[in-house]
Design brief:
This protein has twelve helices and twelve strands. The chain has 371 residues and is α+β, with helices and mostly antiparallel strands. The radius of gyration is 29 Å and the shape is elongated.
């Protein structure tokens, strides 16, 4: 029975074999933080960085290669669509999201191959649904639970853990995120109350509590409906807070966006936090390569290296993202120049060149690029 003709077993049909239990005994960071993901995503600069990282990686196709020769192999079904209920791009986006915010991501095995017990299907599981217990001496994971229910430590129903390269921005950048949230709150309050807070000073006769409350209510109502208000000769308004202009919200927002970009390892000009960068066609490709190398690489390698481990992929094969074709492809003229030189040197055949350009032997585009 071939690799891709093996019959998968669904989660209801087969008991989980006890395989590779040590593969799950990783020491994981605590995923519960004082700052929630929803709070962090309420900051526009955070949402922009998240969508740049997760959204870009989600467009990269996953490929299976022979490790010794680099030969591209046929892809098993789970590599094209890990979850039966969502496309690959969605699963990858939320996997990167988990690594970004929590430093760890989880896939649950929903189907396994009958002949060797390797996973055939997965589903992404939100980190907030997962908890675990550890050995009191070694701090290694001894049991995972999902929604409070224990799950097997291997095989059908078990969790595949993707380890990030740090503890996630909710912990690492909690102070920066909290400052950004506080700034957004302050700006919202200032826009709702354009006049700075202050006191009404009465230089005349003392007023009763009811009269004071009536004056304050009338003052507030007048300020909400129009930009001017009338005070009698015995009342004087004295500001006790800075105006929005005095508080320099624009400068504070720009500085906060820059800090968020640094914290999430994204170039500041990608989120309009740096206005001094001019992009040309010549350096767009270089900037993309730098973005992949410095910003995306930690998440790309965390995912492809985990999927290449022996409990998922057969020994001798590796899983890799096809970043070049999806994101770093050069223009047609430069690409054809390289192909022409390779043909001249006899490194490839005409058929190889046509395949590199997604052309059939008749010259028709067999796999058009819809991006």
């Amino acid at each position: 029975m071939g690799l891709f003709s093996r019959k998968p077993v669904t989660i209801e049909a087969q008991a989980a074999p006890q395989l590779m239990t040590d593969a799950f005994n990783y020491f994981l960071p605590v995923t519960l933080t004082a700052l929630s993901r929803d709070e962090a995503m309420s900051v526009p600069s955070v949402a922009r960085c998240r969508n740049l990282i997760a959204g870009t990686i989600a467009t990269f196709p996953l490929e299976l290669y022979k490790k010794s020769t680099g030969e591209k192999l046929g892809k098993p079904l789970w590599l094209e669509q890990p979850s039966i209920s969502q496309p690959l791009s969605t699963t990858l986006a939320w996997t990167v999201d988990s690594l970004l915010f929590y430093g760890v991501a989880y896939w649950r095995v929903t189907e396994v191959y009958f002949d060797d017990g390797r996973p055939a299907r997965f589903e992404w599981v939100a980190p907030g649904r997962v908890s675990f217990t550890t050995d009191s001496y070694t701090n290694f994971i001894t049991q995972y639970t999902v929604d409070g229910s224990p799950v097997p430590m291997s095989g059908l129903g078990s969790l595949i853990t993707f380890q990030g390269l740090d503890e996630g921005v909710l912990q690492r950048g909690a102070r920066t995120l909290r400052s950004a949230i506080d700034l957004e709150t302050a700006m919202r309050v200032a826009s709702a109350t354009p006049m700075p807070s202050g006191v009404l000073k009465n230089t005349g006769a003392d007023l009763s509590q009811e009269e004071v409350q009536a004056i304050l209510a009338a003052w507030k109502s007048a300020r909400e409906r129009r930009s001017t208000a009338y005070l009698t000769s015995t009342l004087d308004y004295q500001p006790t807070a800075f105006s929005p202009r005095d508080m320099m919200f624009v400068d504070a927002l720009q500085s906060t966006c820059t800090q968020v970009a640094r914290m999430m390892n994204v170039p500041a000009y990608y989120i309009s936090a740096d206005q001094n960068t001019s992009m040309t066609y010549a350096n767009v490709q270089d900037e993309r390569r730098q973005f992949v190398s410095l910003s995306l690489a930690p998440y790309v390698h965390a995912i492809q290296d985990r999927l290449s481990m022996d409990d998922i992929t057969a020994r001798g094969n590796i899983v890799k993202f096809n970043v070049e074709d999806a994101f770093l492809a050069v223009d047609a003229l430069e690409r054809l120049t390289v192909i022409e030189k390779m043909l001249t040197l006899g490194l490839i055949s005409v058929e190889d060149a046509m395949e590199m350009e997604n052309l059939t032997p008749n010259g028709n585009n067999d796999a058009p690029d819809l991006q």
